[in-house]
Amino acid sequence: MNLLSKTALMQGFNALDQWGRFDEAFAALRGWEAQGRLHHRQTIFEGIESCVDALNGLFTGVNVGKTLVKISEPGAR
Questions:
Q1: Is 14 in a helix, a strand, or coil?
Q2: Contact 7/21 with Cβ under 8 angstroms?
Q3: Three-state secondary structure call for residue 32
Q4: Are 64 and 42 in contact (CB under 8 A)?
């Protein structure tokens, strides 16, 4: 998209500019998580055979949030 022809403004944000406030931010995030105000999104693929689909999903928009491949149940050997 040509920003000049759209009379648009593009502005970035660099989190490192706020480095001195990271402790404050993490404390707020922990509080919101404890209150149930933060929701984690993830797409889970089942089995080692789905690794290729999981990887492709990263590039095609299939995934929502973090993409995981579940190989086995936790604690299973």
A1: coil
A2: no
A3: helix
A4: yes
The rounded distance, in Å, linking the Cα atoms of 52 and 54 is 5
Token pair 């500019």 is at which residue? 17
Integer Cα distance of 21 and 58 in angstroms: 31
Characterize the bridge pairing of strands 42-46 and 66-70: parallel
Q: Where are the domains of the chain?
A: 40-77
Please, which residues have CB within 8 angstroms of residue 49's CB and are 6 or more apart in sequence? none
Determine the Cα–Cα distance for residues 44 and 65; give it in Å rounded to an integer.
Answer: 10
Q: Convert the pLDDT of each residue in 14-45 to its tens digit.
A: 888 889 999 999 999 999 999 999 988 999 99
